[in-house]
Amino acid sequence: MREPEQDLRLGCxxxxxxxxxxxxxxxxxxxxxxxxxxxxxxxxxxxxxxxSQPEISERGAxxxxxxxxxxxxxxxxxxxxxxxxxxxxxxxxxxxxEAHSWRxxxxxxxxxxxxxYRHLNAYAxxxxxxxxxxxxxxxxxxxxxxxxxxxxxxxAPH
Length: 158
What we know:
Blueprint: H1 73-76, H2 80-96, H3 108-124, H4 137-155
Helix pairs in contact: 2-4, 3-4
């Protein structure tokens, strides 16, 4: 097991761990828990129009061709607590092992499927948080699902 490094604790002033967006899972301050949620998109005001109007082309001004592109705000603004929980599990794993080392695990699909089932079983039997990490079993399960999906996508024919 790797010793936790100060720079992997992803920072709050109580952890004194440098810059970052999250404090360590074992931080007493839990500074990340006090982060304000993202505002709903409906409350974001458009930028004021520039004082001098740009030249308008045949297509008009202010166009953005993003139809059919992934709408990341549905994930990031739609379920920030779930995303944060997965990031906390990934951060815990990076401290315990090494960042992105899950990609090199032998028989990864089988082993992450087993881990997924273990976390779902623990949750189904009433255990909300993983005793080792202190993080929700469902966040561990989501992380394992993401590992499985990523490995399957990486091995899929293009």
